Amino acid sequence: MSRKFFQSMTSRRGFLAAGVGSAIATGGAAQGLAGELQKAAADPKNLPPNVPDWSKYLGESVAAAPYGKPSKFEAHVIRRDVEWLTASRESSVNFTPLHELDGIITPNGLCFERHHAGAPDVNPVEHRLMINGLVDKPLIFTMDDLKRFPRYNRIYFLECAANSGMEWRGAQLNGCQFTHGMVHNVMYTGVLLKDVLNEAGLKPKAKWLMLEGGDSSGMNRSLPLEKALKDVMLAFKMNGEALRREQGYPLRAVIPGWEGNLWVKWLRRIEVGDEPWHAREETSKYTDLLADGRSRRFTYFMDAKSVVTSPSPQSPLQYKGRNVISGLAWSGRGTITRVDVSLDGGRNWREARIDGPVLEASLTRFYVDFDWTGQDLLIQSRAHDSTGYVQPTKSELRAVRGVNSIYHNNGIQTWHVQPNGEVENVEIA
Ligand code: MTE
Ligand code: CO
After folding, report:
1. pLDDT digit string (tens) for 222-261?
2. d(CA 398, CA 288)
3. Is residue 217 within 6 Å of ligand 1 at its C-beta?
């Protein structure tokens, strides 16, 4: 490997020392040939030609699991938080285990969760959505009222603007769960905000909406009316069942392609106005500080981005010979048209094979089937979207945005695969 790269070993050690070592060790980045960490040795008595235990006895009855759970052998597939990242665990993030998932849909129990004041238990019978401000008729809806509007099903990704935010100044967190796990992709069932607003009747001066959550943070954001009338949904179901409490049960806003912070959960009020409110979450937070000290405001779109989910630090290479690289690409501005993958840190690229549905503002799955001879690899992926935009390198991004930012880091990720199969988060110098 002639190309130079650096690993921010100090910061990674800092991460280990800060008490999330178990999160990494279970993922298997830190020691040994990582495959051995993940698989317990097989008991020969359960291997052919013997008849294994589970073929000899009756299995569990249907009464055992009224609500199904994953196999006990999948108990390591869980959301994880990083304790030192936030001041409290209520106002925190639990990251999606992207390295363990495949396809494009995130299972409900594994969707990352991000709360400013913890997840409240909202009783749907007592929940109300109020619409006030520049409307002909202020209205208060029950959940049953909302479910009588025409219903739609749409698959969208939700990405927190802070996803990959810790990586602005260099490689930090050793696992795509932590570097990229503030994204999930589910099918929402709900109604169009346009239809609900129509019921209240918009005054001619209406231009902006303020969406407000029913949690104790009362989190609120300003939304341009144009977007609201285009494709915003009020969702009550995800992947066919009721929203999970963490995702805003019983009602959340779905703002396709735009930063996750706008997707107000436990949605209780929409005020119609003629200008933005400049709430906390769109002034002191969720604005992007540039190198010259000015800030970008209202950076709504999530630009095209991708990441190789396996191999990655928590999902090391276990075999020489045939291997599958699996990854995700997405764009808030349209569909993913192509994904390139490099094995040598961006010198040579090959086109990945996209498989599964390719939808607007949705995660898109890609693969590269390749033979590994045991050499060092610097794996990268690069997304292209239907607007012609190509995902930038981290240095291209920093040249425009500086290093003061937290939000909207869609730079190309590099994973260094070592000859023993372990994978580390690195940056190409
Ligand atoms: N809505 C309310 N009411 N309270 C919150 O704390 N967090 C926001 C947004 N909506 C939040 C909220 C942020 S920053 C993000 S990224 C998304 O919800 C996270 O959605 P999720 O928890 O379903 O992943
Ligand atoms: Co967020």
Report:
1. 999 999 999 999 999 999 999 999 999 999 999 999 999 9
2. 12
3. yes
Cα angle: 194, vertex 195, 201; to 5 degrees: 85
Tokens representing 348 are: 């040579």
Question: To test the ligand 1 pocket, which listed residue (85, 160, 259, 281) has its Cβ within 8 A of the most ligand atoms?
Answer: 160
Tally helices (H) and strands (E) across the chain: 8, 24
Range with lowest mean pLDDT among 81-90, 219-228, 373-382: 81-90
d(CA 130, CA 142): 9
Ligand 1 contact via 259 beta carbon (within 6 Å): no
Distance 90 CA to ligand 1 centre (A): 12
Q: How far is ligand 1, taken at its centre, from the CA of residue 93, in Å?
A: 10
Question: What pLDDT sits at residue 37?
Answer: 47
**Residue of the nearest CA to atom 7 in ligand 1?**
115
Instruction: Dig out the tokens for 19 from the structure.
Output: 């008490």
Q: 217 CA distance to ligand 2 centroid (A)? A: 14
Ligand 1 site-directed mutation target among 108, 113, 114, 210, most atoms within 8 Å of CB: 114
Q: Would you state the pLDDT for residue 86? A: 87
CA of residue 328 to ligand 1 center, whole Å: 22
Give Cβ neighbours of residue 119 (< 8 Å, ≥ 6 apart): 113, 215, 245, 246
Q: Give dist(CA 33, CA 318) in Å, integer.
A: 7
